[in-house]
Design a protein that fits this description.
Radius of gyration: 32 Å
Helix content: 25-40%
CATH architecture of the largest domain: Orthogonal Bundle
Distance between the termini: 58 Å
Shape: flat
Strand content: 15-25%
Number of helices: 20
Structural class: alpha+beta
Number of domains: 4
Amino acid sequence: MKTLVLMWVLLLMFSVTTSDTNSNTSETYTLIKASNLAKPDCPSQCGDVIVPYPFGIGSNCSIGPGFDVYCNMSTLPPKASFSEADYASIKRISDSTLRISNMVSSRCYSPDGEIRGGFNFSPNFSNLPYTISEINKLTVIGCNEYAWVTSRTESTGCLVICYKQENTLVGDECSGHACCQSSLPENINYYVTRFYALQESNLTNNGSLNNIITRPLLGEVLGMSSRESLNPCTYAFVGDADAFKFNGRTDLDDTSLRKKIEDTVPIVLEWAIGDLNCTEAEATNGSACQSNSKCVNSPRETGGYRCICDEGYEGNPYLSPGCQDIDECKDVEAFPCHGTCVNIPGNYTCKCKQGYSGDAKIKDGCSREIPVLQLALGIGLGFPAILTGISVLYFTAKKRKLVKLREKFFEQNGGVLLQDKLKTKGGVGIGSMRIFRVEELEAATENFAEDRILGKGGNGIVYKGTLPDKCVVAIKKSQRLDQGQREQFINEMVILTQINHQNIVQLLGCCLETDIPLLVYEFVSNDTLNRHIHNQTSGLGRLSWNNRLRIAHESAGALAYLHTDARMSIIHRDVKSTNILLDDNYTAKIADFGASRLVPLGHDQVTTLVQGTLGYLDPEYFHTGQLTDKSDVYSFGVVLAELLTGKKPINIERCLDERNLATYFVNAMKENQLLDILEHQVVNEATDEQLKATCYLACRCLNIASERRPSMKEVTMELETLRKFRKHPWDCQDMKYNEMSSLMIEGEEVDLYTVPFIDNSDTFGEYSSSSIKRKDIML
C-alpha cells in the first residue's frame, strides 16, 4: 500500500507541471505554477485535485467559510469535497470555477407504465459562495416525459417524445426526440428537479397525435421486440453541456447510463469572494488581492470579486508576497528571443547583438549592419537637419489642426451626447468599444467604392469592408446629421452597446472623427429574409418550411430578448423582413436599430412620433402614438404572414382588397380561404398542426387590440413547440378545397384590424377559429 501511495504522489508531482489535455474548456490554471499555492503548513492538493488558496484543506487554511475543502484520505486516490458528509466530490478548481461530481435524477417505470422507482437530485449552494454556471444545461433523456428544474420563482424544462413508427430512427441530436436540452436561469445557487409523465389522455386530441407512444406502449418504439430492450427510466441532470454527447439509441438501451453520466459530466460552479465588488471591498476592509495583481468584479448578481495576476506576473494573487515576475528569458518557447534577452518587471526586452539590427524576436530577424551605409547616413544628416526641423514644425502644426478638426467632428456627430447617454442609460463606456480611425475604414472599403455597397436606406449607406486582420465587416455611413437625426444616430449607438444576443447584429465600433459618422457592424453574409422570400429570380435558394419556422423562432427570440431580457426594455419599432439578415447557416439576425426606443423602467409604453414601414405599422400605434412592445408583435405578425404566403406586405398590383397583406391574410382566415393564399410549397412541407397553429398565431399577432396580442416571449415559446412537431404533412395534390375548413370551426371570436392601402375606410373584421386553440398545438 505504501508503494502505491508513493507512486500516486510521484504521478501527481509530474501531472501538475503539464497541461490538462483532456479538458474541453479554455480555462487557465495559472495558480498551479505558484510557489505559494497554499497557506504555510497547509496541504495544496487532495489526491489529483489541486487546492489553491483562497481554498484550503484543514483548519484556518482557507480565506473563510465556503472555501474549506475536506479531504477524505481513506480512499485511493483521496477524495476532495465540501464537507465530510458531502455527496459531491470536487473534480477541479480553477481561477473562477469548480467542477464537482454529478448525480442524475430519474424516474423509472414497470412494463405496464406504473412508476416503480426514481431519484431526485436537488443541490443547494445557497449558503456557499457559488452559483451554477451558464455552461451547464438541463438535459433530459427518455420517452414522453417532461422534466424541469425550479429555483426561487424561475424554472426551465423540456419535453422528450418517442414515436410508434418503426422507421423512425433516434438520431444523435438532442433536439426533443428521446433527448432534449434547455438553458438554466441566470445566477441560481440551487435547483429542484421534477418529472411529469405524459399519458395518452393528454397526448391525443381527436386522434391527431396518435403516433406518439405512451408508457405502456414503449416496447413498440423503433421496432423493438420486447419492453426489456429499452431503458425503463427517464433521466434528468444539470451539467457541463460540452462534456455530454447524446448517442441516440445506444444511450436509450444503456441501463448503466446514470453511472456513465455521473462519471463524465460534472456540474460547473462559479465562485467569488464575498458579496462586495472591488470598490466596495477596498473601501471597507481592503480586498484580498496582493501585490502585482488586480481585482476583477464577479459577473453574478450577488456580487463578489476575484483576483488575477498582472500581465507578466504569475503566482497566487491571494497570498503574500503576491504574484511574482515571470523571467521571460528562461522560457524561450513562450517568449522567443534570438538576440540579447533582458528580463524587466512584467516584461522583457530582446535586442539584436552588437553589429546587427532588426527584430530579434523573429528567427533570422537580425541582419549585419553595413558601416559604409552608416557613414553615408551620418554625413547626409547634417544638411537636412534644418530642413527636418522646419518639416517637424510644419507637420506638428498640421497635426494639431487635424486633431482640433476631429474633435470638432466628434462633438458635431454627438460624441459628447453619446458619452452622457452611456452614463445615464447604465451602458458601458465608450472606451470599451473599438474606435476606428477613418483611414482604416477607407482602406477597408477601397475608399468607399461603389462596388462595395451592400444596401441603401433612409438612414444611410452600408458598405462591405475588410479590416487588416481579414475580418469582414459592414460599415454604415450615415447621412449628414441635423439635430434631429443626431439623436436617432446616438439612439442606435446606445441601444446596440447594451445588446448581446446571438440573433442580433453585433456593433463592433464606430468612427466619429469625420463629418459623416460611421458605424462598424459584424458582416452577415447571406442577404435579407425579404430577398430570400420575394426575389427567387436573383439566384437565392428557396427557403424550406423548416428553415422558415426556425428563422421565425430565432427572430421572435431576439425580439423577446429586447423586450424582457436586455438591460432596459427595447422596442425595435421597425420589424420587417428586410431588417432580418441571414448568415451562411441561415441563422436569423435582427438589424437596424435606428428607429428603436428604450422604455424607461416602471413603464410599459412611450409616447413618440409615429415611425415605421408601410405594411408593417401597428394600427393602434398609428392612431394613438402610444408605442408598446405589442407594436413589434404586430409587425412580426406581418413577417409571419410573409413566410406563410410568400407575398409582399404591400403590392399595388393586387386588387384593392388584397393590396395590404395583413388585411388579405385575416380575411382569408375568416372566410376559410387560406389555402388560396398560402405558398404551395409551404403547404406541402408543413405538418397539419404546424400550419394551423402558425396561421392562428399570425392572426393573434395582428389583433386590433394590443392587449389581446401575445407577448414576444409567448410567440417564441409557441414557435419553439411547433418546431418539435414531426408528422405527416398534408398531401395537397389530393386535398380538396373544402378540406381547408379543418383549419376553422365556428366558436371563439377574435377582433382583427384591417389596414387599408388607401386610407378611405375604417374596417374591422372578425373570424372564427375554435378548432385552432393552444391545446391543439401544445403537448
